[in-house]
């Protein structure tokens, strides 16, 4: 737990905060018309998740999120609504959220929230029910462009939409998850994305928390790219994002390598999805795909991505 010491927030809250993403008051909208086979393809959600009542899980997540915000505020770590970076994140969320409901009809009722937490942790999360947080260590530390922030947000939203936390809860035998979550704070169930944290900082390596599985991570990458592309964000930014992650992790402790060797694989897998998502991006931008220029990040050592 000493690895959390960089975070200003103590104990369990710090863990909860580690991967939160935040959302504005965007409203989910009706499903858009879709050509058959358009976009990415993923399998069915596990029916095991039905063992855990959705309302209970979302209510518990909302409670934890409120507690997190309160504690962050006490630490002067909750960035105000007027902060430019908060406004930027909420503007991105406003574009992404309308594309959430195609992945999960319940999302139409979610009360989305997005907040920014001052913390060195490289982290973002979306809890069940659409409660998102970003950490400044990710947004500012990696100098995320709008496209890259949208890829992260899409990934975190995808965990919630695909109900990965609920599935984890069911597989852990937490049928009465709502009653137990408050006491133990199992991270992945609440949408805390330990994998992302670990990837960039090594922070997650010592945490005795339930993580999303590698399959969940891959699925969140794929679905997140689809959501971001439909919202008009360049999916190739996902490649740049993980290149930045890789560079930022070069000073991470050795356990990072053993616990998280997947960064390069994620880039390979994301590239495989580009043929499915680039047409969506081009359509939203209103231009022919072949006329799109390469994606350019904002740091010199990441080459343009075509
Ligand atoms: Zn994840």
Walk me through what this model shows.
By secondary structure, the protein is mostly helical. It has one domain (2-26, 51-286). 46% of the residues lie in helices and 5% in strands. The chain contains twelve helices and three strands; from the N terminus they run αααβββααααααααα. The chain has helices at residues 11-17, 54-74, 84-96, 136-139, 146-161, 164-171, 177-184, 194-201, 214-230, 237-248, 255-259, 263-285, and strands at 113-117, 124-127, 131-135. Strands 1-3-2 form a three-stranded mixed sheet, with helices on both faces. Strand 2 (124-127) and strand 3 form a beta hairpin. Helix 1 (11-17) crosses helix 2 (54-74), helix 3 (84-96) packs across helix 5 (146-161) and helix 5 crosses helix 9. The longest helix is centred in the C-terminal third of the chain and has 23 residues, at 263-285. Residues 1-33, 197-209 and 253-261 have low confidence and may be disordered. It binds zinc ion (ZN). Zinc ion is lined by residues 155, 159, 193, 195-196, 212, 217, 220.
């Amino acid at each position: 737990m000493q690895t959390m010491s960089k975070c200003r927030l103590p104990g369990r809250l710090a863990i909860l905060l580690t991967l939160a993403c935040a959302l504005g008051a965007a409203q989910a909208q009706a499903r858009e018309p879709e050509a058959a086979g358009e976009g990415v393809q993923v399998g069915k959600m596990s029916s095991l998740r039905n063992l855990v009542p959705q309302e209970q899980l979302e209510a518990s997540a909302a409670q934890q999120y409120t507690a997190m915000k309160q504690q962050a505020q006490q630490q002067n770590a909750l960035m105000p609504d007027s902060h430019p970076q908060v406004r930027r994140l909420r503007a991105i969320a406003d574009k992404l959220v309308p594309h959430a409901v195609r992945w999960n009809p319940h999302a139409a009722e979610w009360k989305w929230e997005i907040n920014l937490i001052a913390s060195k942790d490289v982290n973002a999360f979306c809890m069940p029910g659409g409660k998102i947080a970003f950490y400044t260590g990710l947004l500012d530390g990696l100098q995320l462009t709008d496209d890259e922030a949208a890829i992260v947000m899409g990934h975190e939203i995808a965990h919630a939409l695909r109900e990965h936390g609920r599935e984890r809860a069911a597989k852990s035998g937490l049928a009465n998850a709502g009653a137990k979550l408050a006491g133990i704070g199992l991270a992945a169930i609440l949408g805390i994305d330990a994998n992302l944290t670990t990837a960039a900082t090594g922070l997650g390596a010592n945490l005795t928390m339930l993580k999303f599985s590698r399959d969940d991570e891959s699925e969140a990458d794929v679905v997140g790219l689809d959501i971001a592309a439909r919202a008009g964000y360049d999916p190739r930014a996902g490649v740049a994002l993980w290149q930045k992650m890789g560079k930022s992790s070069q000073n991470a402790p050795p356990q990072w390598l053993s616990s998280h060797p997947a960064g390069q694989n994620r880039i390979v897998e994301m590239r495989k999805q580009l043929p499915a998502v680039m047409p969506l991006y081009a359509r939203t931008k209103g231009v022919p795909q072949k006329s799109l220029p390469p994606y350019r990040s904002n740091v010199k050592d990441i080459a343009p991505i075509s």
